[in-house]
Amino acid sequence: MLSMFKSIPSHMDYKGQKLAEQIFQGIILISATIGFVYGLIIEQFGWTVYIVMAGFAVSCVLTLPPWPMYRNNPLSWQPIIPETCGESSQKPQETLKKKKHK
């Protein structure tokens, strides 16, 4: 059963995160505007809240799961550099000779 959940991709690249944030904010802004105008016209604040909550639910469905459109630009990681026995314990700064001030 757990192997089924491990096969679901759960990552999102940086550009996908930015896109998801922009979509989320856009939907919230549009639903808040529509809700405010509609609530003002019919003079019911409850409808404003319902419309904003519906916009929030829609934006969560569109932005929280890692949809494939958020995984179009994967990061290219640098290859692993194999360490040698003597060099791995020292930091690069320690290997340089320190200059003595006169």
Q: Nutshell version of this structure?
A:
This protein has four helices and no strands.
Inertia-based shape:
elongated
What class, by secondary structure content? mainly alpha
The radius of gyration over CA amounts to: 26 Å
Quaternary class: single chain
Poorly predicted parts: none
H-E string: HHHH
Question: How does this model look, in words?
Answer:
- The chain has 102 residues and is an all-alpha fold.
- The chain has a domain of 61 residues.
- The protein is 56% helix and 0% strand.
- It is built from 4 helices and no strands.
- Helix 2 runs antiparallel to helix 3.
- The longest helix has 29 residues.
- It is elongated and about 80 Å long.
- The relative contact order is 0.15.
- The mean pLDDT is 85.
- Belongs to the SPCS1 family.
- Component of the signal peptidase complex (SPC) which catalyzes the cleavage of N-terminal signal sequences from nascent proteins as they are translocated into the lumen of the endoplasmic reticulum. Dispensable for SPC enzymatic activity.
